[in-house]
Amino acid sequence: MAKILLVDDDNYIRELMKASLHGEGFALFEARNGREALEQLERRPVDLVILDVMMPLMDGWELCRELRRLYPDLPMLMVTARTETMDKVKGFELGTDDYLVKPFDPPELVARVKALLKRYRIASSQVIRLGEVELNRSSFEVSRGRERMSLPPKEFELLFKLAAHPNQIFTRNQLIEQIWGIDYEGDDRTVDVHIKRLRERFPEPIVGFAIRTIRGLGYKLEVLA
């Protein structure tokens, strides 16, 4: 049973989230602000955190930053009334995995929660299969059917990062920090160059997945039906 922590100072919103998720078999816990959330997480681990932005004592921005520092593999879904693109960019750069705007439809909340939990189960795997393409992180091997491919290390790491989190948007800054490291001093456009090379190596009509550009935000990998 997946454990989910709901962090919002609005009692009505917490009740709505609980009502939406109650019948899905999740264990639900509540906190009214970031400080309460951190205190709860010291007592019990959870599998996912749903958090608001505008909260007293510790807001969602600071909480997101602290959660990513203390629990780097903990999935987070930010639920907020803020709709500006720059707020979404800020959330992704601080470490949130997905973004849902209030007022939300309960079925969409459930769908996003399930997708995030599934995404993190995939991310913990050492082998990822995308159609006919298989990525093996332990050996850095790429295969397509019977064909073996050799990728430069950074291209492999970039593709594996995107494939491990399908449909999750990564900003350029996130990819630079996670693939090249926080001390990287080069141009962040190096991400664009590597994405272009990956698209050339893996044309979407053939391989069954595509690396999409999300204007103003970054990139995501999408598995094609």
Automatic annotation (TrEMBL):
Pfam families cross-referenced by the UniProt entry: Response_reg (PF00072), Trans_reg_C (PF00486)
Domain Response regulatory: 3-117
S-adenosyl-L-methionine among keywords: no
Subcellular location: Cytoplasm
InterPro entries: OmpR/PhoB-type_DNA-bd, Sig_transdc_resp-reg_receiver, WalR-like
Modified positions (4-aspartylphosphate) in chain numbering: D52
Domain of life: Bacteria
Ranges annotated as DNA-binding: 125-223
Presence of the UniProt keyword Glycoprotein in the record: no
Keyword line: Activator, Cytoplasm, DNA-binding, Phosphoprotein, Transcription, Transcription regulation, Virulence
Domain OmpR/PhoB-type: 125-223
Coiled coil: none
Function: Member of the two-component regulatory system HssS/HssR involved in intracellular heme homeostasis and tempering of staphylococcal virulence. Phosphorylated HssR binds to a direct repeat sequence within hrtAB promoter and activates the expression of hrtAB, an efflux pump, in response to extracellular heme, hemin, hemoglobin or blood.
Name the UniProt record assigns to this protein: Heme response regulator HssR
Organism: Paenibacillus allorhizosphaerae
Lineage, highest ranks first: Bacteria, Bacillati, Bacillota, Bacilli, Bacillales
Gene designation: hssR_1
